[in-house]
Amino acid sequence: MTARIFISYRTSDGMDKATALARDLGERFGDEQVFLDKDDLRGGSSWRDEVQRAIGAKPVLLLLLTPQLFSATDHSGALRIADPNDPVRREFSAALDAGADVLPLCCDGVDSPPGDLPAPFDRLGDYTWRKLRAYDWKNDLDRLVGDLAAQGIRPAVGAVSTASASAGAATHPAPPRRRALLGLGGAGL
Predict the structure, then answer these.
(1) pLDDT tens-digit readout, 45-92
(2) Tens digits of per-residue pLDDT, 90-102?
(3) What is the rounded CA–CA span in Å between residue 133 and residue 108?
(4) Which pairs count as long-range contacts for 120-124, CB under 8 Å and 24+ apart, including other chains?
């Protein structure tokens, strides 16, 4: 199955939120429907080709809007989002070119998409955005799950529904693939 949800983020301040989001969306829709680079890129593969292939399938691109997404600079002090080779910019541009749905998520520290951004980020104002905040994670996630379902993404067989996840999220184990990855990290301790 091709991933229907693609999570794009700046690693410097978005990796934890992207990882938690992939885990929680994987519980609801199935891991195979959620693409997160650090979990889904095979060793030895060309990450640019794999990302292009995943975005070419026109998933819903969840763009995590974090403070560093907009303010990160390169070694010369230039904004990374202005660099055509910036990975987040490449993912967003590819999604726009492919005609994929884009859903910006304003994370902690970002109240709304800023104006006056370089292309293609100047198009963020064209999209309805949602909040994804640590202090209101459950409510923000439930709303996002509803938005994704409205875009035709259906829970996988055996996936946890929003209602059952809300009732007992602490008692549900992580999805099999992500649980296995978490287990490998503990083996080296």
Answers:
(1) 666 777 777 787 889 999 999 999 999 999 999 999 999 999 999 999
(2) 999 999 999 999 9
(3) 5
(4) 120/89, 120/92, 120/93, 120/96, 121/70, 121/81, 121/89, 121/92, 123/96, 124/63, 124/65
